[in-house]
Amino acid sequence: MKYDCVIIGGGPAGLNAALVLGRARRHVLLFDDDKARNRVTREAHGFITRDGIKPTEFRKIALQELSKYPTIEIKNETIVAIQQLSKTEFVLATAGGHTFHSTKILLATGLKDEQPNIPNIERFFGTSLFSCPYCDGWEMRDQPLAVIADKNVYKLAKEAYIWSKDLAVFTNGEGRLELDERNRLLAKGIKVYEDLISGLEGENGQLRSVRLEDGTLIDRSGGFVTPLWSLPNQFAAQLGCELNEYGGFQTDEYGRTNVWNVYAAGDTAHIVPAQLVIAAGTGSAAAIGINGDLTNELFDGE
Ligand SMILES: Cc1cc2nc3c(=O)[nH]c(=O)nc-3n(C[C@H](O)[C@H](O)[C@H](O)COP(=O)(O)OP(=O)(O)OC[C@H]3O[C@@H](n4cnc5c(N)ncnc54)[C@H](O)[C@@H]3O)c2cc1C
Fold first, then answer.
1. For a substitution probing ligand 1, which of 109, 130, 131 has the most ligand atoms within 8 Å of its CB?
2. Start-end ranges of CATH 3.50.50.60 in the chain?
């Protein structure tokens, strides 16, 4: 069987795309290996009607909704390779050694978060250290917070200040703040530490203090950190897709990449701003692009 569209990724982008395509009576196969970016968190915020929902509950509701539509199939498997056989046929290989054919492909594979090289940081990421103030700033408002970043630390500190004025900025090495940026932070009463961080202390994911290389402990109950973001696979290179200035897939407003029949949605295309609702929205737009293109091809040819 050749599917109308194979979707890779079952985060909000892929799930919403499946919903729109299923409702348009398209034969859709969605692959997901359950590694959504926010799986490390206990709550997701900022999605209207779902503010504060557990990521597992969000996914459960989505799968229940998709189960109503008979042309949507879902497989809990990893896609390891995609090959273009012709302009209108792709073959996708799973880690388990199976292959599937499709006319169109939607990449909704999210992003890979790579934390700064600080011991223990993974223990706190998603429970008391977060990357996005819009997602988790409200819950940490007015608390003593750390802002930890190798890059873009000034931008992150300015954003975090809206949620708490009790900020300590950790550059984890010298030279990562311009002198005038440092002075502007100090003028707002924000403390700046440029020593290397030797570790983070706390229990059960709850940050208690940041330890500097000389052993000084700075008490903090949470904060923000900027990971490095990258694509979690080689599909862009395998398919010849162009990337945008942030390193995500370059698309038009309907998710079309520069390769005909390959579409992208969610964080993998729109690296910033990254939000569940934006990922779902771009998934919906890409599905409308895919369905519109299939319809035009049916009537007008390719
Ligand atoms: C710690 C943290 C907290 C966050 N909190 C919030 C919040 O409170 N509110 C908010 O709006 N946003 C939040 N975000 C951002 C939000 O998680 C992302 O914007 C959103 O998940 C992006 O959706 P997506 O569908 O593009 O990708 P994802 O949700 O990351 O989903 C991608 C899916 O694709 C699958 N996949 C990838 N490659 C393959 C493959 N080869 N084969 C099969 N499956 C594959 C993955 O397993 C994954 O399930 C947070 C992010 C982080 C890191």
1. 109
2. 2-111+231-300, 114-225
